[in-house]
């Protein structure tokens, strides 16, 4: 399972499994091949998957690195950026590794859609470092539509015998990203922030209103700073590249604080931007702002249509607030 797929990307495979035994049959050979070749094997997976793999690996499990610093699935943008930095560092150091990855958080359909966009983009962004990696998907936890998308964003699929073969459903990353830009959330009738921006002079007031709302809705100081920066980038893009007036709204769900910017422009292919690190020599081409937004936020959804462009960003609320919101929903149902 090393080498490249037919498009020139480093082997990026999906292992779709339906039991612990099935997982071991598909993935343990990948691990042992790497160890036999003198490679370091890194696994960033759920506790369930780690326990199943340990059963199959026996004493070999001591040679696996089970986590990576600064890589957590609690927030997808920082996860993607942290993994990219880790792989870049390993590449620059001349190390040989192979990776096993699994999104270990329970996700909504919208958050899963955002994660699959990162999976698609990683074929080129992470694939440039030359490391083979396998992504785990438990068939029991995902809908048929999600599993169909998994086959579209992975060039290779791991069979029940541990061998990989090309996915007949695979599509190039930009094709997938253009076709799957959202979905946007439903905006509540009276969000805490609903601000129209018609002039550049209103930028500062809008940014302050959003920052204050983020704090009131429960974001930590560190996350609140990132939320404010992502807002500033999204609003700057709308003012610079879109058509006014722009509208900015902020609200909270049980799991996230959400910010959405709408403008009247057509987005200039924005749905595929922000996944690749911008080239400092070509910053005039654009894309730096969207790159920053995607690396800061947990979820980014974008819609471009006849009505204009909408950019939605979501930042996770602290776990205690999530639990409190879930308990309130349960008591009211």
Automatic annotation (TrEMBL):
<keyword id="KW-0723">Serine/threonine-protein kinase</keyword>
<feature type="domain" description="Histidine kinase/HSP90-like ATPase">
    <location>
        <begin position="200"/>
        <end position="314"/>
    </location>
</feature>
<dbReference type="GO" id="GO:0004674">
    <property type="term" value="F:protein serine/threonine kinase activity"/>
</dbReference>
<dbReference type="Pfam" id="PF14417">
    <property type="entry name" value="MEDS"/>
</dbReference>
<dbReference type="Pfam" id="PF13581">
    <property type="entry name" value="HATPase_c_2"/>
</dbReference>
<dbReference type="InterPro" id="IPR050267">
    <property type="entry name" value="Anti-sigma-factor_SerPK"/>
</dbReference>
<keyword id="KW-0418">Kinase</keyword>
<keyword id="KW-0808">Transferase</keyword>
<dbReference type="InterPro" id="IPR025847">
    <property type="entry name" value="MEDS_domain"/>
</dbReference>
<feature type="domain" description="MEDS">
    <location>
        <begin position="12"/>
        <end position="155"/>
    </location>
</feature>
<dbReference type="InterPro" id="IPR047718">
    <property type="entry name" value="RsbA-like_anti_sig"/>
</dbReference>
<dbReference type="InterPro" id="IPR003594">
    <property type="entry name" value="HATPase_dom"/>
</dbReference>
<dbReference type="InterPro" id="IPR036890">
    <property type="entry name" value="HATPase_C_sf"/>
</dbReference>
<protein>
    <submittedName>
        <fullName>Anti-sigma regulatory factor (Ser/Thr protein kinase)</fullName>
    </submittedName>
</protein>
């Amino acid at each position: 399972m090393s080498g490249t797929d037919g498009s020139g990307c480093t082997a990026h495979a999906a292992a779709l499994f339906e039991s612990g035994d099935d997982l071991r049959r598909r993935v343990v050979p990948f691990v042992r091949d790497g160890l036999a070749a003198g490679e370091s094997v890194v696994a960033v997976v759920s506790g369930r998957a780690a326990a199943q793999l340990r059963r199959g690996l026996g004493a070999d499990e001591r040679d696996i690195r089970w986590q990576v610093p600064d890589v957590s699935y609690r927030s997808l943008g920082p996860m993607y950026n942290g993994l990219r930095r880790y792989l870049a560092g390993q590449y620059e150091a001349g190390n040989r590794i192979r990776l096993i990855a699994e999104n270990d958080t329970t996700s909504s359909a919208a958050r899963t859609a955002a994660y699959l966009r990162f999976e698609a983009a990683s074929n080129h962004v992470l694939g440039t470092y030359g490391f083979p990696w396998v992504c785990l998907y438990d068939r029991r936890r995902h809908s048929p539509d999600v599993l169909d998308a998994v086959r579209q964003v992975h060039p290779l699929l791991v069979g029940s015998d541990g061998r990989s073969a090309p996915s007949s459903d695979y599509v190039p990353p930009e094709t997938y990203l253009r076709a799957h830009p959202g979905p946007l959330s439903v905006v509540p009738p009276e969000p805490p922030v609903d601000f129209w921006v018609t002039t550049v002079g209103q930028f500062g007031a809008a940014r302050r209103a959003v920052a204050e709302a983020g704090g009131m809705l429960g974001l930590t100081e560190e996350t609140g700073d990132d939320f404010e920066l992502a807002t500033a980038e999204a609003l700057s893009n709308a003012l610079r590249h879109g058509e006014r007036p722009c509208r900015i709204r902020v609200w909270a769900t049980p799991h996230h604080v959400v910010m959405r910017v709408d403008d009247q422009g057509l987005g200039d292919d924005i749905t595929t931007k922000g996944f690749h690190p911008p080239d400092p020599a070509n910053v005039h081409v654009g894309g730096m702002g969207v790159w920053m937004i995607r690396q800061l936020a947990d979820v980014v959804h974008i819609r471009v249509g006849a009505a204009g462009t909408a950019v939605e960003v979501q930042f996770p609320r602290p776990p205690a607030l999530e639990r409190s919101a879930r308990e309130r929903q349960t008591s009211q149902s």
